[in-house]
Amino acid sequence: METTLLIIVILVTAVFLVLLAYFITRWRFENKFRQWRESELKLWQMEKERAQREAVAQSRAVLGGKFTEQLAPYLPEFKYDPTEARFIGSPIDLIVFPGLASGDPQEIVIIEVKSGKSRQLTPQERKIRQLIEDGMVRWELIEKPYQE
């Protein structure tokens, strides 16, 4: 009888220790997971705020650049008569016809306005510049038949 009782006490103790170890391990894991989740949430929030600030800054830069493109003919650096400039916007910004105001245009000037940190031409703009430099420019007239 004593042996059976001893075995039961040992089994109950073993089961108790296993359950105790299980719950302690579970509590530690859940605590570490909770800490990890909170730190990841903080990092995610900081990254989200940084991305939002960058997006706003980039948007302002783009809008400022577009504004500058349209105001370019009225800036002191612009060496042509503003009334002879025509805003296009894309893929080039302006076409200027020096002499147009006096009725005697002398040339056609294609202008790309750059502002901000990155003042490099896009691949499209470089290609257009090369086409102009290579003389790959022509005049076409489209006439619509007159109808009464």
Can you give a write-up of this model?
The relative contact order is 0.06. The chain has helices spanning 2-71, 123-133, and strands at 85-87, 94-96, 109-111. It has 148 residues and is mostly helical. It is rod-shaped. It has one domain (1-135). Strands 1-2-3 form a three-stranded antiparallel sheet, with no helix packed on it. The model has no long low-confidence stretch (mean pLDDT 92).
Structural class: mainly alpha
Q: What's the story with the biggest beta sheet? A: 3 strands, antiparallel
Give me the number of helical elements.
Answer: 2
- Low-pLDDT runs of 5+ residues are none
Radius of gyration: 37 Å
Spell out the blueprint of helices and strands.
Blueprint: H1 2-71, E1 85-87, E2 94-96, E3 109-111, H2 123-133
Antiparallel strand pairs: 1-2, 2-3
Could you provide a short overview of the structure?
The protein is mainly α.
Structural descriptors:
148 residues, rod-shaped, single chain
